[in-house]
Specification:
Length: 196
Amino acid sequence: QVSEVCGRDGPSAVWTFTEGVGLTANDTAGTPFNTMTLTTDVSWIPGKTSTAVQFSGTNSFATATTALDGATSLELWVKPFGNTPGYVYGQSSPTSMHFGGFWAGGVLTHQHYEASGTLRTVAGALPADGKWHHVFVVMNPVGSEGLKLYIDGGLSSSASLLSNTAIGDFTLGALLSSPINDVYVGGVDDVAVYAH
């Protein structure tokens, strides 16, 4: 169970989506707790461990006020449907993007803007094959760790990262800077954020 692993690893936020109904997902580990709000176009589906959320496209996304900055990592399970390209996860404001995980054509690309405006990217294969895939992103500008993308337990790509300053809110299914365009179609389950 990912929630048991997350509990041992000391996450700053965990959304397991075990609610199965409604328009909120509870953070079971955060201090403070960061409830995730779902739009009415988000639906509930069988997940990796219990239930999960499914995003259907336009205006179908979830939002939490969590700031992923400094040395931080993001973990989630992803299950794309069809061929529609879009942002699986991200951090943004209505006018600016901090980072986003863009899925298209069987590839997940993590796009990350530093405070200077420099764009860093890492990418890896993530097929729409009807299976759940584990994604882990390391965003650590401290030391040499930098930006790393792991898919299904293997390192897919790495890059340098000189800064990680949060802009806006954390989202699933779309970016706040583009809630109608580039929207993800698929499932997400067991999301965790780590302050390391």
